[in-house]
Design a protein that fits this description.
heterodimer; A: 88 residues; five-stranded mixed β-sheet; globular; B: 158 residues; alpha+beta; four-stranded antiparallel β-sheet
């Protein structure tokens, strides 16, 4: 199996709390889906743990489509985390 | 301006939205159009808080355009309409500035009214835009999503 490298993007207060709008990761083999990715991030740094503390509120999109946390992550995916939208 | 598939115009812009000009151009030279419904969303006066200076709209480039096209495509499936346009401002703006303009052209008025409301209800809950208010001290406050918007969208599901 080849490595899975993804881009993660953050918007609104997630972006300002993390002080970054995007980052790239090559994932450990045990990271299969979005839930695994969130756990991985939260263990890495408490900034992520804060953001995902109320994780039911956070929306997830993969490659510009909304998805749930059981979505399997593939190489080159763009994963987005953001709060409920407030446009219009 | 992205004219995409069909007759959907989707335009996300940092420039002020000139709704009068856009409305005139929308139906100009198209005699089969019998009705145009326009919705204009404005920045409200900042209510009770006089310390608020500006409102800034952030969006997710790429996904935002895609979702707006998806919403318009679904409106075409659901209503008997000819053409839609969604203009959405991003960046920093002040009271009375236009945030969003939705135009829907149809043969008859009912379809244009319904499709316009449908597009706005879905835009509110699905299009990745976020509002943040800046106060005079440079503090930022992210606007929270409203439950009533989810209810409005849910009412479209049969």
């Amino acid at each position: 199996m080849t490595d899975i490298t993804i881009k993660i993007v953050y918007f609104a207060w997630l972006r300002t709390m993390l002080q970054k709008s995007q980052e790239n990761y090559t994932l450990p083999k045990n990271i299969k889906n979005i839930d695994d990715l969130i756990d991985f991030l939260c263990e890495k740094d408490e900034k992520y743990a804060k953001i995902f503390a109320n994780k039911q509120v956070i929306r997830v999109a993969v490659n510009h489509e909304y998805c749930d946390r059981t979505q399997i992550i593939k190489d080159s995916d763009e994963v987005a985390f953001f709060p409920p939208v407030t446009g219009g | 301006v992205d004219n995409g598939m069909k007759n959907n115009i989707v335009d996300i812009t940092t420039d002020p939205i000139q709704q009068g000009d856009l409305l005139n151009d929308f139906s100009n030279g198209k005699p089969d159009i019998g009705a145009v419904c326009a919705f204009v969303g404005l920045v409200r006066d900042f209510n009770d808080n006089h310390n608020i200076k500006n409102l800034t709209l952030e969006h997710y480039p790429g996904m935002c355009e895609k979702k707006l096209h998806d919403i318009a495509d679904n409106a075409f499936k659901k209503f008997d309409i000819f053409k839609t346009a969604i203009y959405h401002r991003v960046g920093t703006m002040g009271p009375n500035d236009t945030i969003v303009l939705v135009l829907v052209a149809a043969r008859h008025r009912k379809a244009s009214f319904h499709a316009c409301e449908y597009i706005m209800d879905y835009l509110k809950t699905d299009a990745p835009f976020w509002k943040v208010e800046q106060d005079i001290n440079g503090q930022e406050k992210w606007i929270e999503a409203r439950t009533s918007d989810n209810i409005a969208r849910a009412e479209w599901k049969e």
